[in-house]
Amino acid sequence: MITFLGLIVTILVIIAVARIIRILELTAKLSPPPAEEITDKDNNSQGNITLVFLFLFMFFIFYTTWRYSKFILPVSASKHGVEIDMLMNVNYVLIFVVFFITQILLFYFAWKYKHNSNRRGEYIPENHKLELIWTIIPTIVLGGMIVYGLSVWNGITQSDHSKETNVQLIELYAKQFDWTARYPGKDNKLGSAYFMNIAPNNPLGIDSLDKHGVGCDDVLTKELHLKVNQPTNFYIRAQDVIHSLYLPHFRLQMNAVPGMTTQFYFVPTITTAKMREITKNDKFDYILLCNKICGAAHYTMRMKVVVDDDVQFTEWMSKQKPIVETNVASTTPAEGNVIALK
Ligand SMILES: [Cu+2]
Description:
By secondary structure, the chain is of the alpha+beta class. It folds into 2 domains: 44-115 and 129-157, no CATH class; 168-319, Sandwich (Immunoglobulin-like). It is built from 6 helices and 10 strands; from the N terminus they run H-H-H-H-E-E-E-E-E-E-E-E-H-E-E-H. It has helices spanning 2-30, 40-67, 79-112, 128-157, 272-279, 310-319, and strands at residues 168-175, 178-183, 219-221, 224-227, 232-238, 243-247, 252-256, 262-266, 286-290, 302-308. The chain is elongated and about 125 Å long. The model has no long low-confidence stretch (mean pLDDT 87). Residues 174, 243, 290, 292, 294, 298, 301 line the site of copper (II) ion. The site of copper (II) ion has 7 residues, from loops.
């Protein structure tokens, strides 16, 4: 009897559970689960968050600019660098003006035109006038910047200095991973070079048959000394891969390419001593860096640069020894292969 009653109770419980499930199914059909409804309140709070973001964004832009301004290069130490700085500043002004206008409008519009159930959006499929304005103005501004930039660059690199007689010639020779400077000595002429002559005692491959080179008065140094206000012409060569001669304080950069000689003419204007006063840093030194990723030890490829006044430069130069190894083996280069530095 108890077994029979137990069976009936079990069956009734199963039926009851089945009915409850069915009831739940039916009620679910009557009222579908509430969709993610976005209310005006949600839109307002999201709109306000975009405004908060705008203020934080602007605050951090000014803060980081101020915080890291110490890493900005000091005043240019070369004559042409002043023009480069001017070009940079004009670019900065333009970029910042456009940046602030567009970013402020972007977040302001997101806040002002957030969805509102009492307002309908306006349908504007196209607006010729607006499109002309935002095409023509940037075209004129960017075109102007390109012309301005090119004229500055051409003025720096393509001026004719061939008639100047007091130009200091210096060869800068790049190889993995160091720089060597070569001064022409009293005759102010650099001897020619040929890569087959490269040897442990002739790292630049200078041609000993050339009377201006080995056996003459050329000087090799591992520190670059420049004379203040002295027009200087760098001849730049590389032994192995492309390097780049980079003197950030002089706003000067030129690639060093194997097999050819590149040049850069400039006038240093601030001595190391004066720059130490300007930067209020007793340990300040100019530096020459390689600015092309040229191999594993690329980051070590640097050379100290010193800008001397006349007296200091003469004194330093008098301590340097000319190359006198006249016995450097020399191979007569095939025509066209010789690198003549004149
Ligand atoms: Cu390099």
